[in-house]
Amino acid sequence: MASRGSLAVVLILMMSLQMLSGCFGNAEPKPEVVDDDPFAFNKPIPDNVWYHYAGAVDATSQKAISEANLTVNLSGNNLPFWAEGSYYSIGMTTFEPTIGITSSDNLFISSWGNGPAGSTAMVRCSGLIEMQNLSDYSCENTYDPLFPVANSNDPYLYVDKWTDRIMKFDMHALLGMTVEWSDNEGNSWSQPPTVATSVYSVQDHQTITSSPYPAALHDSTWVFCINGNAPHPLCSTSFDGGATWSPEVSGAPLNCQSGGLTAHLEGGENGNFYRGNIGCSGDGYSIYRSINGGFTWTEHPLPTSESGTADTWNGEEAQVAIDDDNNVHAMWMGLDNMPYYAYSKDEGDTWSPAMMVAPPTQINGTGFPVITAGASGRVAFGYVGDSGGDVWNGYITIATDVFSENPLFTTVQINDDGDPLDTTAACGYNRCGGLGDFLDMGVDQYGRPWFGLSHNLAGDIGIFATITDGPKLRGDLAALNSLPSGGNATL
Fold this sequence. Notes:
Elements: H1 4-21, E1 49-53, E2 57-58, H2 62-67, E3 84-93, E4 99-101, E5 106-111, E6 121-126, E7 138-141, E8 156-159, E9 166-171, E10 177-182, E11 194-195, E12 207-211, E13 221-226, E14 234-238, E15 249-250, E16 266-267, E17 273-278, E18 285-290, E19 298-301, E20 319-322, E21 328-333, E22 339-344, E23 355-356, E24 365-373, E25 379-386, E26 392-399, E27 409-413, E28 440-443, E29 449-455, E30 461-469
Antiparallel strand pairs: 1-2, 1-27, 3-30, 4-5, 5-6, 6-7, 8-9, 9-10, 10-11, 12-13, 13-14, 14-15, 16-17, 17-18, 18-19, 20-21, 21-22, 22-23, 24-25, 25-26, 26-27, 28-29, 29-30
């Protein structure tokens, strides 16, 4: 064993060598080791992209996270991806645009009054989904039957997610609806059109969807609901792909006093149907569910006690989406005109706490909410927002793991700051230009969200907005292929 004297000599020599090491070469102090920054991408985050948690907490700010007393876990499916957004013009006007996506990678959007003889055009945009150059995509009207149906008050387009059937619904002066469909990407349309109405009720503000609920004469069951002569929506069902329809029945419990305006219907893989509406008591919002093909509906109140509900002219602000595992996702606007969200893993029987999903930037209010979902727990929200002085922009917010304790939200502004969609006072709270009463959203088979809306300042031109870069909402969690930026150059 070494003596204490020997140990002292060794220690003195080691200290001397450390001091002398600074005299030779350019030795620098070793930097402090810190955790890797999950937002240190290989390029800067764009100014109009935000990473945040519920309540507009900046996910890139440790101070904001600490002040909000959040525990965050950016792992698994809750990872951040570099993201950016843009939009692409369809070259035609639109009004209350509804959209659909087929498995052949075509995007469809309704275009009011631009079909033959003034009918509603069914516009097909090819090449958008996986384009490499802006010249790769083109949009054209596909609706050109021998006897086109006259233009309608509320045009509506829907693509069946299970059969690719494209449905064209036209409402005529509040008196009834006609239905046509195409099974070949819009190249031909069923004739003559089906009449889908009940004579005892006016027809207004229709919404249509499908699900694999068992049907005798078709691979999916179809349901539409309208604002009719009842204190709640009325709904009708087709078991033969739209050729015939059942008499309209109450789209809510019989004693419901919700009002008739209903948000977009959605069907799930399990055959259920869902829609959003004001609660039966006349306040709050609820999701209504049918498990028997649209013939009876039950009410499932949303957790709106803290958010309140928007005080806007239209009462259908509660939107719903169903992911690939039948989880239910709901979005609504609160009393502060901000977007709120909750999910249900038990078909709407219980809900998560409400989450405010707007980004940490100046947004004075939002409107025209839409929501869509892909794989389990992967959700996208679309809305317009006022960034100050009635400058209305379009926004897409995505989350890839809403079931996380604190899900990460990524929000992109789809238009440049100098290219607003509208500057009308209170545009997002009222019927506004080509936005009409509602917008629409969907996810393609590769996991990219698509948001159909209108560029009102360009003359109510229909546009498809999306994330040009970001995470997939379907399949293994990975980055989407990049799309070229579009924007004002495509108008």
